[in-house]
Amino acid sequence: MTPASAVTGATLRYTDDHRILVRQGFEYAPHFRVSPAVRERVRREHAAVFAARFPQLADVALEHFWEGSIAITRNGAPRWGRLAPQVHGVAGCNGAGVVKFTALGALAADLALGQDHPLLAHALALGGPTRMPPEPFMGLGVRAYIAREKWLGRAEV
């Protein structure tokens, strides 16, 4: 199941090894770190999402919990291709998923090798990310955006 709102809603997936994966929520972490208190709150939120979706499994505890980072660009466009001399890569996935960024990674490799690909023109047409505003404006804007999305999606579990 995927949410209507990627910021507030939960994504639940049933894996090949018969586990349920819960992905829910975002935190602004410009230094790629969150406090233990935030981590524990998120763990409780994931457990609550699981319990709300599967009340018949109320006695099942979350076996594992992890958090990860995603890079988000202001305009949603990825940063990819030649990043510096002799450096090619992909960044700014915006939470869009593995398939798109696997394809962009392969195309970045083609660029590095000077090889053409039928999808290269389409990928180049995605454009690049726009500049982020400086702090404290960026942090204020991101926090306001997340708060707004949480408010609008408050009914979605």
Give an overview of the whole structure:
The protein is an alpha+beta fold. Helices cover 35% and strands 13% of the residues. Strand 3 and strand 4 form a beta hairpin. It is globular.
Distance between the termini: 11 Å
Taken from the alpha-carbon principal axes, the silhouette is globular
Gyration radius, to the nearest Å? 19 Å
User: So how many helices?
Assistant: 4
Key terms:
4 strands; 4 helices; two-stranded antiparallel ribbon; globular; alpha+beta
Gist of the model:
The protein has helices at 36-53, 98-113, 120-124, 137-152; strands at residues 10-14, 20-24, 79-84, 87-91. It has 157 residues and is of the alpha+beta class.
Q: What's the helix and strand layout?
A:
Blueprint: E1 10-14, E2 20-24, H1 36-53, E3 79-84, E4 87-91, H2 98-113, H3 120-124, H4 137-152
Antiparallel strand pairs: 1-2, 3-4
